Amino acid sequence: VFELVCDRCGARHDASHYRLHCDRCGGLLDIEYDVAPTVEFRVLKDFGGLRRYAPMLPIGNAARLVSLGEGDTPVVSLPAVGAALGLGRLSAKLECCNPTGAFKDRGSAVEVTVLRELGIEAVADIAGGNTGVSLACYCARAGIRFIGFAYEDPRHPQLQAIAGTGAEMHRIEGNREACAAAIADFCRDTGVLNLRYSRNAYFIEGQKTFAYEILEQLDALPDHVVVPVGNGSLLLGSWRGFRELLQDGRAATMPRLHAAQSAAFQPLVAALHGTHWRAEPRADTLAVGLRASEPPRLDALVSACRESGGQAVAVSDNAVAHWQRRLAELEGLLVEPTAAAPLAAAEILARRGDIGSDEHVLVALTGSYKQPTSPRS
Amino acid sequence: VFELVCDRCGARHDASHYRLHCDRCGGLLDIEYDVAPTVEFRVLKDFGGLRRYAPMLPIGNAARLVSLGEGDTPVVSLPAVGAALGLGRLSAKLECCNPTGAFKDRGSAVEVTVLRELGIEAVADIAGGNTGVSLACYCARAGIRFIGFAYEDPRHPQLQAIAGTGAEMHRIEGNREACAAAIADFCRDTGVLNLRYSRNAYFIEGQKTFAYEILEQLDALPDHVVVPVGNGSLLLGSWRGFRELLQDGRAATMPRLHAAQSAAFQPLVAALHGTHWRAEPRADTLAVGLRASEPPRLDALVSACRESGGQAVAVSDNAVAHWQRRLAELEGLLVEPTAAAPLAAAEILARRGDIGSDEHVLVALTGSYKQPTSPRS
To answer: How far is A364 from chain B (nearest CA, A)?
Structure first.
């Protein structure tokens, strides 16, 4: 019912094994479905959560989704923060209410379901941040061994949380590249699957459900959607989701999709404006989810912004910290710094006139304010 | 549409101001509604979340609920932990997916809505733990000043999170009693409302929605529901909720409601068995949500267990830590220790034969595994 299609040369591949790249040109793969447009075929109305959209996910059997209750996250209005931003209609979708506290769970649920349907018993990947926690939890749920490689201090709370799921952890001296090399060696020697979640299409497909839910939760689609962009799976998922809703005739127009990046990491801002950008040697940001200098699907991110009429904006750590604090004080929502980046971006977009003060803006609050702890600590 | 009724002498009071005790005998108050039984009058079908059950909540206007998107938490099956416990049908309701990461948000939403409807502008209460975080967030959302008193180290992450909402914090030297005395003094001097959330009925009413949702989410009610009990608002809320569902004719029987307490804090276990119990001078437990030696509504807690056919069970810290770890390893769910107490209790109840191996058991996973951090830290 679905195939993997090269995003560069268009070559088609069957989905019977885990594939990251095009056999012909090495490009990354997208997923295409053979499901007739319209809600009749694309939505399973008796289901909630991600299962509801199973015909448009790369999984064979909706009932067998590896689920921890992800999705169906609330949308709330942010009247006080909106007023502070000069926006009359500001809403937030609380992705921080997902079971591991971050939007990643949509991607993990789909990705790990694919792994299980393909009969894969063990995977290795870099394990840090919200994605590592989420993937480790879903692998535990599915009975798949998760082998995590990390170069940070193992006392880091998210690494402890990952270890708490029973994952096997390997400490690597050095940086992210050293870690990737160690994983490649390990997988070659052991035959364990090298997951490289940021390159595959499955994770992004899970993020599509963010767009589907927005349509079903609101009377009308927002004019603007602002999301944080590191590797950009939520932006790409939103774009794919809203395009499908247009095809189905369920939506008449696409919201403008805007990317919030960090002043320290702005590859998409540069690509969108055709300017040169390189990360500083010791670049860093408070908004750890935005730490990505080479997103694998940069061209697609540019298309998502450009074709939807959206922008990419770099925000400062000061602005992130400011809006994180104001969100807590004015609305009672405690989120991690990365999740406040879209508010900082909305401030710039409103000031520039890219967002009108009477337009409806929806931001994704992508991660909860809490730091994970381990059941073993 | 509702009155405050003394749980001891039955005297009725109107709800036009914030009242903790019976004017006549000093007993605690429950809420009674003048809403005809049956779903037609008691459920607002066009709403989700807590608003759906507004006719059975002590609020005047469903649309004006102070909400952060609480409720509608997922129910997931726990097949692997069930097998480890010898239970063929074990489910969990993920209260940890509420916006502040704990079941408390149901209570806070209702409580703070009442405060706003009564025109209250500032409240003071002891501020620690998940309840403090939740109340502070909902007060921020409602524009009500929250003044927190704490005797713990102010670097405690939950106190930092509370401060992060802009709450005014007072550090008290001494223990819980010293804190309560300081609050009483402060409120007398300033006219600020002394909230004492653990004594009022509003918080418990919010917890009723836990029961309503279970009925609407499952094809049939579970045979057993196991919840952690400190002051016991979730047990009391469940009991009230399931009783109303019986009155409505929507449920034919009530699940047996079981309480998970700690070996170090077991006032309900003792009261249920008519034995004497007193907390040790330095009693403590890993399951911090169970640290309550004198729950204000102990008699009602006894009734909830007894009349539903349930038990109260004291669990050890070792068992709590064990099931917290096994839940992470076997199902990928990372929860705080308190949330694992119902699994430790279910183990005892299954071993004793109080729960049959083919009966459906639902546990509340009441709090997320994460430690809050402050936007200011």
So the answer is: 14
pLDDT for position B370: 67
To the question of pTM greater than 0.90 for the whole model, the response is yes
pLDDT number for residue B71: 98
Q: Is the pLDDT of residue A377 over 50?
A: no
Strands (E), chain A: 2-6, 12-13, 29-33, 75-77, 89-94, 122-126, 145-150, 168-171, 193-194, 224-228, 256-262, 312-315, 360-365, 370-372
pLDDT on residue A375 = 52
| Residue of B76, B324, B375 lying closest to A67 (CB–CB) | B76
CB distance A266 to A232 below 8 Å: no
Q: Tell me the average pLDDT across B250-259.
A: 96
Q: Tell me what the pLDDT averaged over chain B comes to.
A: 95
Check the CA dihedral A262-A263-A265-A270 and report its sign. positive
Which residues in chain A are closer than 8 Å to B137, comparing Cβ atoms?
328, 332-334
Q: 3-state SS of chain B: helix, strand, coil percent to 5?
A: 40, 20, 40
Q: DSSP label at B21?
A: B
Window 91-130 of A: residues touching B by CB (8 A cutoff) are 94, 96-101
Task: Enumerate residues 220 to 239 of chain A having a beta carbon within 8 A of any beta carbon in chain B.
Answer: none
**CB-CB under 8 Å, A72 with B74:** yes
Which neighbouring-strand residues pair with A149?
A126, A170
Q: Measured between alpha carbons, how far is residue B169 from residues A14, A75, A182, A326, B375 in Å?
A: 60, 30, 48, 18, 16
A367 - beta bridge partners?
Answer: A102
Using DSSP, state whether B200 is helix, strand or coil: coil
CB atoms A133 and B334 under 8 Å: yes
Q: How many CB pairs (< 8 A) connect A and B?
A: 161
